[in-house]
UniProtKB/TrEMBL annotation:
<dbReference type="InterPro" id="IPR050333">
    <property type="entry name" value="SLRP"/>
</dbReference>
<keyword id="KW-0472">Membrane</keyword>
<dbReference type="InterPro" id="IPR001611">
    <property type="entry name" value="Leu-rich_rpt"/>
</dbReference>
<dbReference type="Pfam" id="PF13855">
    <property type="entry name" value="LRR_8"/>
</dbReference>
<dbReference type="InterPro" id="IPR003961">
    <property type="entry name" value="FN3_dom"/>
</dbReference>
<keyword id="KW-0677">Repeat</keyword>
<feature type="domain" description="Fibronectin type-III">
    <location>
        <begin position="214"/>
        <end position="308"/>
    </location>
</feature>
<dbReference type="InterPro" id="IPR036116">
    <property type="entry name" value="FN3_sf"/>
</dbReference>
<protein>
    <submittedName>
        <fullName>Fibronectin leucine rich transmembrane protein 3</fullName>
    </submittedName>
</protein>
<keyword id="KW-0433">Leucine-rich repeat</keyword>
<dbReference type="GO" id="GO:0005615">
    <property type="term" value="C:extracellular space"/>
</dbReference>
<keyword id="KW-0964">Secreted</keyword>
<keyword id="KW-0217">Developmental protein</keyword>
<dbReference type="InterPro" id="IPR032675">
    <property type="entry name" value="LRR_dom_sf"/>
</dbReference>
<keyword id="KW-1015">Disulfide bond</keyword>
<dbReference type="InterPro" id="IPR003591">
    <property type="entry name" value="Leu-rich_rpt_typical-subtyp"/>
</dbReference>
<keyword id="KW-0812">Transmembrane</keyword>
Length: 308
């Protein structure tokens, strides 16, 4: 029998079969009314398959394909779906309202896609901020345009989406000094895990710049060079908060999957040591408050420093 005849099928795994959209056809899944899980990982899909069965489908896995577009009706009527994974594809934008029918969605994974955080993605920021806490969304990290690269879409303020086609970002200069006497207390600063670069003599008085922040600064960051591959980050916060998100990204090349590293630091911390950085490579380091009960942080812009 063909797939269309397997109306009692509940779980279908077709991983790693080089399937493409033309080969699947338009109605291959339409009769699988009892299907609760469909996995199409590591295939050659350019978009999600059409006419997915919405009666019972709860888990849909589409990661590691070649998807570069997602039609607005791709997930129409999938009202039972609670887990959707489109990680490791080539998707840069999402059409507005694409998740409107997913009434039971609680897990959405979109890691390692080249998200372009322009005006067309502002609706995603608004949608994310409206979600209840039970919905877990991961992987919406901006890769372009350059001014927001490395930032999380949920944390961008309205001006950064550039909906009026402006591209003016003021920068300020900060001069930092190297310290040879900085030794972290054991277990105090987690180390980043990257390849170990060759050791060179550290430069002193390196210049860093931060993107412009509101007049009422919530976070103030200071960076000091320790060695050529290590920097010490310290910060001050104007309001109490439970946690902050710290991320760092190597700049100067096209975005590579996995190039952004982020960690969560608790609100009582005020310093962090980044190690094993690539010498003489610029990095963007960003901090933003995590969820907090303080109403003044609802539209706070991430504070970023770019090393040169």
């Amino acid at each position: 029998p063909s797939l269309q005849d397997l109306t009692n099928l509940r779980r279908l795994v077709l991983d790693g079969n080089l399937l493409n959209n033309n080969g699947l056809g338009e109605n291959v899944f339409i009769n699988l009314i009892n299907l609760t899980e469909l996995s199409l990982v590591r295939n050659s899909l350019s978009a999600p398959p059409v006419n997915l069965p919405g009666t019972s489908l709860r888990r849909l896995y589409l990661q590691e394909n070649h998807m570069n577009r997602v039609p607005a009706n791709a997930f129409a009527d999938l009202r039972q779906l609670y887990r959707l994974d489109m990680s490791n594809n080539n998707i840069s934008v999402l059409p507005q309202g694409i998740f409107d029918d997913l009434d039971n969605l609680t897990q959405l994974f979109l890691r390692n896609n080249p998200w372009y955080c322009g005006c067309k993605m502002k609706w995603v920021r608004d949608w994310l901020q409206s979600l209840p806490s039970k919905v877990n969304v991961r992987g919406l990290m901006c890769q372009a345009p350059e001014r927001v690269r490395g930032m999380t879409i949920k944390d961008l303020n309205t001006e950064l989406f550039d909906c009026k086609d402006t591209d003016v970002i003021n920068t300020i200069q900060i001069t930092t000094a190297m310290s040879n006497t900085l030794y972290p207390a054991q277990g105090h600063w987690p180390d980043s895990v990257t390849r170990q670069p060759e050791i060179k003599n550290p430069e002193v008085n390196k210049n860093y710049r931060t993107t412009a922040t509101p007049i009422r600064k919530i976070i103030t960051i200071n960076v000091k060079s320790v060695t050529m591959d290590t920097v010490h980050i310290s910060w001050k916060v104007a309001l109490p908060m439970t946690a902050l998100r710290l991320s760092w990204l190597k700049m100067g090349h096209s975005p590579a999957f996995g190039s952004i590293t982020e960690t969560i630091v608790t609100g009582d911390r005020n310093e962090y040591l980044l190690t094993a950085l690539e010498p003489e490579s610029p990095y963007r380091i960003c901090m933003v408050p995590m969820e907090t009960s303080n109403i003044y942080l609802s539209d706070e812009t991430p504070v970023c420093i770019e090393t040169e």
